[in-house]
Design brief:
Helix content is 52%, strand content 12%. By secondary structure, it is α/β, with parallel strands linked by helices. An eight-stranded mixed β-sheet has the order 3-2-1-4-5-6-7-8, with helices on both faces. Strand 1, helix 1 and strand 2 form a beta-alpha-beta unit. The N and C termini lie far apart (63 Å).
């Protein structure tokens, strides 16, 4: 049994807290919001983010960050990506040398173009930072629906330790050393999911969705491998797997926001309607920054940015994609002479 603190009480943090508790670990959940902690203490259920999923009576809830950090061997960092840096900075003074922090949010910081694990390492250099990602909607994990996921870490020892803590009959955990590839796939698929939702909002069909998923993973892999990620990662669970589920499921806040934008909502109106952090919006500009830095074309992500931030209509964006210059699907496949 391990002592584990989940830092962040959103839907994903809550679902992982339940999973870890069911695996026999002593779990503490932290939130900065007093009303959220009061609700969890009184109801043992997150009625806003994960309704219907009951939490064990012996699970602890607190707003005391120092207590949450110092009492546990493992910290699961589950705050939305825009708050990763500030939360990490607040935690830093309490984190022990070598203490494991598993980041489970997905995103890229817009102004620095850093991945979330890079941010955590910058703010908490003494920590052993790992990541967890894959096709894993909190609503399904909270109900014990079979799920597969990947833990990425710098050392095999840390990855295997986390694999043993997390894995059970309904939650299969693979491990990988490609932390960068895992994080890039996780962040960029949210932007493509916005595009998929926009297409749904415009009334397009399965053909369009299949095209966006297929060409979307090509964009993600093209940028990711240029940056140093492994090709195999982008065609595994944290790449194509996560992209499929995020583009296809109504559990996806990015897809839901995209649907509203396709129907004519502004970005701000869509985010307000979804009532959760739409991380693809925050990653979209960062993705274009990476596109320019590494000189890699990202046509789908570029059109999403133009819709979100430059006032382009969703229908015009689809037209721009369809009328791009003629291309080979895969320029690496040679013609026979």
């Amino acid at each position: 049994m391990a002592n584990i603190s989940v830092i962040g009480a959103g839907s994903w943090g809550t679902a992982l807290a339940l999973l870890l508790s069911n695996n026999g670990h002593k779990v503490t959940v932290w939130s900065i919001m007093e009303k959220e902690i009061e609700m969890l203490i009184n109801e043992h259920e997150h009625k806003d983010k994960l309704p219907g999923v009951k939490l064990p009576e012996d699970m602890e809830f607190t707003t005391d960050l120092e207590a949450a950090v110092t009492k546990s061997e493992v910290l699961v960092l589950a705050v939305p990506s825009p708050f990763t840096r500030d939360t990490s900075r607040s935690m830093s003074a309490y984190v022990k040398d070598g203490q494991i922090i598993v980041n489970v949010a997905k995103g890229i910081e817009e102004n620095t173009l850093m991945t979330l694990s890079e941010i955590i390492e910058e703010e908490i250099p003494q920590a052993d930072v790992a990541v967890l990602s894959g096709p894993s909607h909190a609503e399904e994990v909270g109900k014990g629906i079979p799920t597969t996921i990947v833990v990425g870490a710098k050392t095999k020892k840390t990855a295997e330790y986390l694999q043993n803590i997390l894995m059970n009959e309904a939650f299969r955990v693979y491990i990988s050393p490609d932390v960068l590839g895992i994080e890039l796939g996780a962040a960029l698929k949210n932007v493509v999911a916005l595009a998929a939702g926009i297409a749904d909002g415009l009334g397009y069909g399965d053909n369009t969705k299949a095209a966006l998923i297929t060409r979307g993973i090509a964009e993600i892999a093209r940028l990711g491998t240029t940056m140093g990620g492994r090709w195999e990662t982008f065609f595994g669970l944290t790449g194509i797997g996560d992209l499929i589920v995020t583009c296809a499921s109504m559990h996806s806040r990015n897809r839901r926001a995209g649907i509203l934008i396709g129907k004519g909502y502004t970005m701000d109106e869509a985010m307000a309607e979804v009532k959760m952090v739409v991380e693809g919006v925050y990653s979209a500009k960062a993705a274009m920054g990476l596109s320019k830095k590494y000189d890699v074309q990202l046509p789908i992500i570029e059109q999403v940015n133009e819709v979100l931030f430059e006032g382009k209509s969703a229908a015009e964006a689809v037209g721009s994609l369809m009328l791009r210059d003629k291309k080979l699907e895969n320029p690496l496949i040679p013609w026979e002479e």
